[in-house]
């Protein structure tokens, strides 16, 4: 049997790396085009594949009561490289899946470099690929190069759609005052001591909190260019300045909520607000400030963050930042196989399709890689059922969402078809979520069995 022609994948982030792995595992050669390190970006620091530029968390790993945990389960069942490396480089995170970001990206890079059917081309693709690339997956993510982004806009005829992703700061653990901060996961969640103490907590009383909010609101912040004025933030990645501007209590009911935490230094005193930090590397030397994406300028940022009790002498391995994130109006432009309607040889995957989050991006890469490989092998594959987490995301971006109001979306049970004969409302939520996950696992198993050559 002759070797199939290669699939070209543009972008070596979460989605592109997963797509390359899935196609190669199916026996189809892949050329993975990644411009880094020849050409860098504002947010990336290395040339590794699947580099994590924002948080180091894949969020909840609960596959019975949480939609993103279910997505983890589905990707593991589909032999996903991203989840394999996430598990291999896992850090304690109290029920979430957090990873050592450097070990993780190095593991993904090594696995793809070693695969006999994967070739990695470290050059930029400066526009739409040539016509003789008859099977292409564009997975360039939120930092698509200007040249390629302009070519995509010219092809699709769409106005620019953009929001801003903000990056949270990372602190050296040895610069944190542990006489004020303490280790505890919210509600002591986790099966092991490491998980129950996965977060570092810095408490604030009311006066400290009010002064902190004032400082945020008065801080010197990054300005936007005129053409960026209409861009939208994604609500799951709001800068703290935007949250504070929405109301003085917003942060205290968001990333600074004090619930489920008891300060062992002052157990009789209930904190008014709590800043949490989460371990960022395997050595435990770096901690990122959870939910503290920010657009403050560096000098102001360091001054404001050092107002947090325990961080008065903080040294920052990385300060926060902000960058532009473009995405397609996928419900209007893409079909159910993630193909561009006007040029079906082009598939899209990852954040550029309008999914949000590491895991969601990788999941769309997994689906795109399998669909492209099946097509190349002459064994057309139907998309995953809409009752699965992968299928629910795919359905949403390929027509389930209203194209007039389309915005990036994390996976959630609101995207799933309802389950019959299950109690509605808040009181029935636990039973309903379990019904969603049970149905999804059974239906995903059937989808994987329908394509054994891709398993």
UniProtKB/TrEMBL annotation:
InterPro entries: FAD/NAD-bd_sf, MnmG-rel, MnmG_N, TrmFO. Keywords: Cytoplasm, FAD, Flavoprotein, Methyltransferase, NAD, NADP, Transferase, tRNA processing. The keyword Methyltransferase applies. Its EC number is 2.1.1.74. It holds the Pfam family GIDA. Its main location: cytoplasm. GO terms for molecular function: flavin adenine dinucleotide binding; tRNA (uracil(54)-C5)-methyltransferase activity, 5,10-methylenetetrahydrofolate-dependent. It comes from the Bacteria. It catalyses: uridine(54) in tRNA + (6R)-5,10-methylene-5,6,7,8-tetrahydrofolate + NADPH + H(+) = 5-methyluridine(54) in tRNA + (6S)-5,6,7,8-tetrahydrofolate + NADP(+); uridine(54) in tRNA + (6R)-5,10-methylene-5,6,7,8-tetrahydrofolate + NADH + H(+) = 5-methyluridine(54) in tRNA + (6S)-5,6,7,8-tetrahydrofolate + NAD(+). GO terms for biological process: tRNA methylation; tRNA wobble uridine modification. It is found in: Cytoplasm. FAD binds at residues 11-16. Its cofactor is FAD. GO terms for cellular component: cytosol. Catalyzes the folate-dependent formation of 5-methyl-uridine at position 54 (M-5-U54) in all tRNAs. This is Methylenetetrahydrofolate--tRNA-(uracil-5-)-methyltransferase TrmFO. It comes from Halovulum marinum. The gene is trmFO.
């Amino acid at each position: 049997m002759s070797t199939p022609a290669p699939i070209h994948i543009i972008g070596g982030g979460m989605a592109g790396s997963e797509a390359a792995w899935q196609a190669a595992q199916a026996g189809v050669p892949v050329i993975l085009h990644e411009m880094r390190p020849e050409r860098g970006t504002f947010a990336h620091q290395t040339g590794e594949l699947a580099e994590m530029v924002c948080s180091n968390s894949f969020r909840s790993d609960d596959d019975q009561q949480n939609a993103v945990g279910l997505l983890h389960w589905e990707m593991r069942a589909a032999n996903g490289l991203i989840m394999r490396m996430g598990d291999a480089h896992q850090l304690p995170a109290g029920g979430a899946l957090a990873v050592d970001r450097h070990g993780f990206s190095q593991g993904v890079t090594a696995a793809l470099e070693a695969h006999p059917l994967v070739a990695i081309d470290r050059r930029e693709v400066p526009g739409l690929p040539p016509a003789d690339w008859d099977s292409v997956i564009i997975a360039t993510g939120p930092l698509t190069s200007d040249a390629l982004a302009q070519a995509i806009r010219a092809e699709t005829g769409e106005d620019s759609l953009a929001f801003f992703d903000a990056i949270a700061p990372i602190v050296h653990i040895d610069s944190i005052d542990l006489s004020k901060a303490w280790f505890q996961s919210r509600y002591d969640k986790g099966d092991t001591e490491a998980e129950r103490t996965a977060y570092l907590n810095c408490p604030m009383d009311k006066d400290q909190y009010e002064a902190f909010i004032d400082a945020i609101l008065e801080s010197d912040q990054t300005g936007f260019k005129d053409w960026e004025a209409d861009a939208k933030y994604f609500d799951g990645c709001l800068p703290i300045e935007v949250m504070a501007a929405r109301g003085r209590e917003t942060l205290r009911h968001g990333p600074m909520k004090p619930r489920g935490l008891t300060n062992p230094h002052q157990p009789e005193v209930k904190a008014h607000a709590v800043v949490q930090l989460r371990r960022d590397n395997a050595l435990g030397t770096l901690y990122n400030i959870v939910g503290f994406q920010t657009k403050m300028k560096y000098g102001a940022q360091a001054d404001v963050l050092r107002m947090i009790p325990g961080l008065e002498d903080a040294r920052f391995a990385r300060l926060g930042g902000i960058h532009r994130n473009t995405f397609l109006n996928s419900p209007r432009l893409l079909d159910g196989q993630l193909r561009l309607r006007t040029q079906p040889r082009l598939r899209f995957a990852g954040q550029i399709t309008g999914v949000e989050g590491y895991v969601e991006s990788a999941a769309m890469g997994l689906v795109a890689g399998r669909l492209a490989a099946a097509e190349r092998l002459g064994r057309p594959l139907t998309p995953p059922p809409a009752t699965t987490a992968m299928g629910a995301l795919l359905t949403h971006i390929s027509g389930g969402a209203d194209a007039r109001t389309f915005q990036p979306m994390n996976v959630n049970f609101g995207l799933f078809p309802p389950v019959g004969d299950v109690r509605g409302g808040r009181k029935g939520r636990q039973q309903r979520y379990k019904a969603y996950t049970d149905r999804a696992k059974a239906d995903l198993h059937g989808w994987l069995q329908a394509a054994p050559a891709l398993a």
